[in-house]
Amino acid sequence: MNDNFNSSKIALVTGGASGLGLAIAKKFVDNNIKTIITGRNVQKLNDAAAALGSGCITMVSDMNDLAQLPHTVKTIVDQYGTIDILVNNAGINLKKNFAEVTDQEFQNIFQTNVLGVFALSREVVKVMIDKKRGSIINISSMASQYGIPKVIAYTASKSAIEGMTRAMAVELSPMGIRVNCIAPGFIRTKMSAAALDSDPERKNKVLSRTPMGTLGVPEDVANAAYFLASDESSFMTGTVIPVDGGNSIGF
């Protein structure tokens, strides 16, 4: 896709200041898509903007504050005219034995990972319907592809995201809006690398059931997101694409 075509595009990436979100934002900016990243941590947002350059705009926004999300979308549209691409990347996790997870903890995960995604998507969709075009990319997880212990709330939330992806795609595609989902496998970020390096048994299990025999890198997910955001995937909607080195089908 040529840069001139991309230069008119506006993307919104939630949780774009670190990890997968930052890699996705960098891929977009590097391909001349003006990219707004949101998050709660002002310092992280500023650091990301400094690294990504003038094609990146930061905005403080909390996915838990549902009442504020319409204002976030209105601010973006007032300033930049539209939102062509939405990447619902922001999410939280909780690692805890099933029997010890409280109702409130379960609810907190759903508030951010499901209700936040729904509420923001709904507001962005209103903008995309007017333009009769748009690409929404949800981020799921291996946790929704098979059972992983000690992440019941996270697993439930990501399973909901995959179901929402299909329902959104069927309803919105006739209006020119495509909705797809990426299910990352085990990706080497600072956080995941530290966790796996401190637990050799778990790391060996991860690598042994990943046919490609290695962890992914954030850029692998970013490349998939860029493909789904672009017209190269114009006949794709409602898909859940594992980016996992074969982990979800490994033995």
From TrEMBL:
<dbReference type="InterPro" id="IPR002347">
    <property type="entry name" value="SDR_fam"/>
</dbReference>
<comment type="similarity">
    <text>Belongs to the short-chain dehydrogenases/reductases (SDR) family.</text>
</comment>
<keyword id="KW-0560">Oxidoreductase</keyword>
<dbReference type="InterPro" id="IPR020904">
    <property type="entry name" value="Sc_DH/Rdtase_CS"/>
</dbReference>
<dbReference type="InterPro" id="IPR036291">
    <property type="entry name" value="NAD(P)-bd_dom_sf"/>
</dbReference>
<dbReference type="Pfam" id="PF13561">
    <property type="entry name" value="adh_short_C2"/>
</dbReference>
<dbReference type="GO" id="GO:0016616">
    <property type="term" value="F:oxidoreductase activity, acting on the CH-OH group of donors, NAD or NADP as acceptor"/>
</dbReference>
<protein>
    <submittedName>
        <fullName>SDR family oxidoreductase</fullName>
    </submittedName>
</protein>
